[in-house]
Amino acid sequence: MADSQTSLSVYNSGTGIYTSPRPPISLPPSPATSIVDFLFRNLRTHSDSPALIDPYSHKLITFSQLKQQISDLAIVLHHTFNISKNDVVLIFSPNSVLFPIAFFALTSIGAIVTVANPLYTVNELAHQISDSKPKLIITVNELYPKVNGFNLPVVDLNNYSDLIEKSRHKTVTYPSISQNDVAVILYSSGTTGLSKGVVLTHRSIIATSLMVTADQEFYGEGRSVFLLVVPLFHVMGLITFTYSQLQRGNAMVVMARFELEKALDAIDRYRVTHLYTAPPVVVALAKQPEVVRRYDTSSLIEIGSGAAPLGKDVMDECSKIFPQTKVLQGYGMTETGGIISVENTRVGSRHSGSSGTLCPGMEAQIIHIETLKPLPPNQLGEIWVLINKYVYIFLTEYFHNKEATEETIDKQGWLHTGDLGYFDEEGRIYVVDRLKELIKYKGYQVAPAELEGLLMSHPEIMDAAVIPYTDEEANEIPMAYVVLKTGSTLTGKEVQEFIAKQERCPRRGEGHRWRGEEVVGENWRDGKEPFPFFFLI
């Protein structure tokens, strides 16, 4: 197919608005289309193709089997547990192939799903249950002690086979579901404060899936196999990856959690073509080439990263270990259905450290933190994305939280992301850090994520975290904790010297870059104790 896409986001200097270079998406014309309807719209073309793969039992579920299992579980949920349209149900479970089946079964009968981190404490879970008021909890046996005190009926996915037996010789009358009906409430800390319920409709989830896969469609990408290692309780795992790829007919290998060798074995065994994940996984791959080389990963054509900025150096390291694989990253948030921008590796430069160009239909501005005026390319400010013109993409509201909704979305429809970033001249967006995590050093604002990226570019550093350290003169000084590779003898002084030599140093306000001597402190040349402070772990 001819490449008619441009790599450039369009910048309007008059309005300060950036727009997407990609063609707009087309939503289903029928208003009465649920995410499950849309999922199986082309079933006849791939009914016998694998949809979900369990890498532990090696069980494979085809698309036709997936549809049947969704129907069977929907019958049980309706008849045995009296779940109907608009009832809220909590899925509290680690990743498994049964998680998406439960999600689709619930949404097929019009129920509203909320999901929670299986690592939550009882108190953390209580906040979400109090806010969302579920009628039923779907969980697994090992998590039962956390939910048995809420006086709610519980479905144990460990008894899935026995549950499905109850569906025999029964049917369910599916309610009419509008694209504008609520499908899921995902809890997010948002731009600030306690976790809040992000309300997403069937329409917004369908739109997200089309935005995520727009480049795959444009270039006619064939059927693929995706390895899922990010959690399904997160928008990335549930919607951005799993739903988006299943609706396109692709297979998902579902891991309970990321374990390097098991992930590599799954790539080898199932000829995985795509791994979409978060920066810690990419770092693990980049830092352990000796482990990677034990497995055949030649099928892997793309590694995608999201959820936090991924440094250019790590991308370069990873691409050397996977020479046939394109390494890219995207940017999104729960409030936008998990997607705002993504790299198109077929056009433009690779491994720029950017999060690509805006997805179809997206508009954005970079806003000066103090003046609230839009900024041109290469100027650092808060990222705002437009919501009212393309309302189908975004959350409708924070659940039962009008005040938080109004704080996040202004009257003109701009969603204030709380993220610090900038666009370059070619329309690529660079996400620097969260505004609330900036370190205030002598009136300047230092982004911890950029320092962390520099630290992890050192071959002996596996992981890094930078936090503020209170200082009477400077206000705050960056303090770093680093995890060394096994056997490393690297010292804190050597790490500081490494940072001091870097030409590519973190940005500060107004788009200026820090000089090396500023990053390590004004006293570095005098032999006095510089900063950042380092703790080796």
Automatic annotation (TrEMBL):
UniProt keyword terms in alphabetical order: Ligase, Membrane, Phenylpropanoid metabolism, Transmembrane, Transmembrane helix
TM helices/strands, residue ranges: 97-120, 225-243
One MF annotation (Gene Ontology) recorded for this entry: (E)-caffeate-CoA ligase activity
Pathway connected to this protein: Phytoalexin biosynthesis; 3,4',5-trihydroxystilbene biosynthesis; 3,4',5-trihydroxystilbene from trans-4-coumarate: step 1/2
Any GO BP: phenylpropanoid metabolic process
Record domain AMP-binding enzyme C-terminal: where: 450-502
Domain of life assignment: Eukaryota
UniProt domain AMP-dependent synthetase/ligase: residue ranges: 40-385
Entry-linked SUPFAM superfamilies: Acetyl-CoA synthetase-like
Family note: Belongs to the ATP-dependent AMP-binding enzyme family.
Protein name: Uncharacterized protein
